[in-house]
Amino acid sequence: MSEIRRCALITRFADERVSESARMLTENLLARGLEVLAPEEERNRLDLEGVQFVDDDTLAQDADLVIAIGGDGTLLYAARLVAPRGTPLLGINRGRLGFLTDIMPNDMLAGVEAALAGECLRDERQLLRAELHRQADHAVLRGLALNDVVLQTSKSGQLIDYDTRIDGHFVNSHGGDGLVVASATGSTAYALSCGGPIIEPSLEVMVITPICPHTLSDRPIVVSARSRVELELVARPETHAEVTCDGRLLSRMTPGDRLLISSEGRRITLLHPQGYDYYRLLRSKLNWGRRSFDNAD
Is 203 helix (H, G, I), strand (E, B) or coil? Predict the structure, then answer.
């Protein structure tokens, strides 16, 4: 890793859970003589002299290291910003679960120091690309996701019907609340709550998981990351659906539109502290064998 001179903080200083950690880290970085960048929208909440407030595009383009302080949602937002440039991303956990933000507040300064010294483990993660081809205006809307691309009903209590194809081959006609197409990273997010499998994050695969399927035999499928998944709504009265990328709305979707999901060539680089162990993380976050593994941790 090249020398780090500019650090960007992605956080919400208005959130009491994270503001104390964010302010402490900001002061530490400034004392080291580093340039600190923060989102323009936080200008009125952070009154530390020396912080540069810039727009999101400048923040991601100019930083040598991006530090996300919050929950996994904060890191997912930061991932979208750094994707074009591939800036390394470090996550400080001030959220609830923290599969992606794996440095705890008590270890924050030590973790950042290791990142600045080039002593963290680099972990490259696959991104997903979504393309929604709209029939009405012939527009093509594009989005990136680290966790998942989701097609779901936008009207509570109403099912949607949709067809799936993989690499041009018809798979099935589904009925239910929708479908999650997740990366290996996203297998522990929404897809997991829908009954999908846990995938080791280095595997080049996508997980296709129905959301509340109307047919009990409609099960998750794991396919190669080289595959292309195509979804199309079946025309039914009062069909309401939407497409999200990592929980962020891409667009409404109507019958006749086509949603294409594939692996993106670019990757996200996450930084982990020395000793990072994915399986220990699973045990901790999912409370596996708590008594059996107390001594192992």
Answer: coil
Tokens coding 127: 């991104």
**Euclidean distance between CA atoms 283 and 297, whole angstroms:** 10
- Domain definitions of the chain by residue range: 6-120+273-293, 127-265
Tell me how far the alpha carbon of residue 244 is from its chain's centroid.
Answer: 12
Which single residue is written with the structure tokens 């010294």? 117
Q: What architecture is domain 6-120+273-293?
A: 3-Layer(aba) Sandwich (3.40)
What span, in angstroms and rounded, lies between the C-alpha atoms of 177 and 213?
A: 7
pLDDT tens digits for range 205-229: 999 999 999 988 999 999 999 999 9
Written as six digits, the tokens of 68 are: 């996300």
Same fold, 6-120+273-293 and 127-265: no
Options 15, 47, 56, 72, the catalytic residue? 72
pLDDT digits (tens, 9 = 90+) for 19-48: 888 889 999 999 999 999 998 888 877 767
Domain 127-265 grouped into CATH 3.40.50.300: no
Q: According to the 3-state scheme, what is the secondary structure of 241-274? A: EEEEECCEEEEEECCCCEEEEEEEEEEEEEEECC
* 72 annotated active-site: yes
pTM of the entire structure? 0.91
On whether the CB atoms of residues 18 and 12 are closer than 8 A, the answer is: yes
For 286, residues 6+ apart whose C-beta sits below 8 A from its C-beta are none
**pLDDT band, residue 293 (cuts 50/70/90):** very low
Closest listed residue to residue 96, CA positions, set 124, 121, 72, 69:
72
Dist CA 73 CA 94 (whole Å) = 11
**Of 110, 114, 75, 73, the residue nearest 91 (C-alpha):** 75
Nearest residue to 71 via CA among 124, 21, 4, 127: 21
